[in-house]
Protein: MFS transporter
Amino acid sequence: MSVGPAVSVGPAVSVGLVVAICLVAANLRTSLTGVGTLLPEIERGSGLTSSWGGLLSTLPLLTFAATSPLVARASHRFGTARLLVVALGALAVGTVVRSLPSVICLFTGTVILSAAIAFGNVLLPALIRRNVPAHRIHGISALYVTVMGVTAAVSSGVSAPLSHTLPGSWHTALAWGLAFTVAAFLAWLPRVRGDKPRAATGATRSAVPWRSRLAWQVSVFMGLQSLAFYTAVAWLPSILIDRGTSSTAAGWTLFYYQLVALAASGLLPLFTRGRLDQRWTAAGASAVVACGFAVLVAAPALSVLACTLLGVGGGVCLVLALTFQSERAGSAGEAAALAGMAQSVGYLVAAAGPLLLGILHSSTSSWTLPLVVLLVLSVAMVGAGYGAGRDRHVR
Structure:
């Protein structure tokens, strides 16, 4: 079916809206990915053990899981844009608190900023579903994932050098992404004026699809790809450092991993344009992630090859996981409900990754068993991706 000139496609994907979406995307990982690079310094400077370091890396995911189910209800009552502006303000506060010289502030600020990011994670698919034509959802989703990947990769690469050059060491380096938060806040503040809560219009709130098999497949796929990413971000530098790599080189290796993921996520729409059935794409990308962990286990010296495979597979899986939350829903309200479920269940699954790896490493003094566990979970992601990739709507 062709789109005639009478359809208001232009305003729906205006430059201002795209920029505003991208600014929010720039905040969804920047404050988290730098922690993995700085974790050895944070542990030395604050006296945290590896298990506590794993908890620090897991805390954002636990907060995501606890907060995500609340977003759809709050959005229905207060309005999506209004809620997003409040979340961005909370993100700024949490970033500042986390950078203060106190272990209590380190954990408290992490919880605050993670809750704010959880709201942004759920609200963006709903905003895209409401404001973007269906045939452009995949492209816009890939664009904001690309921006998210760029800023996340930069954060991984520059955090260690910044901690060595800026006053305040790693405390200051943790707060460098605050500029993105302020820019996103200013971009969305004018959009609050025209934002009407769905509750005020008499619209009913979409129920969370707990009984839908497809919704569970989307949620598990979201969880397993998030587990792979956040575990790599949290522990890959430590794995490389234990094998003789310097902290700066380990940080740039993590940057390379995310750069590859960024390229894969950006190129995906070119190969899947017009294709609504994504079963084999999701299953194949998950298999590539499994191969990346297999290389880390069997041939540790080939860390660049492992990061390449992890980046290619992970970048594709991330775009698909976020796109499914919009494409598998029939309306903006349903997209918010599905995204809330997918990210609650998904991040609860993902939360086990960094903490479990920290515990296994502390118990065995080796990275072999933790990496084998990641390999097995990546194989399970193949099945979840195949189911979530079906061209159907959650009912």
About this structure: The radius of gyration is 20 Å. The longest helix spans residues 332-364.
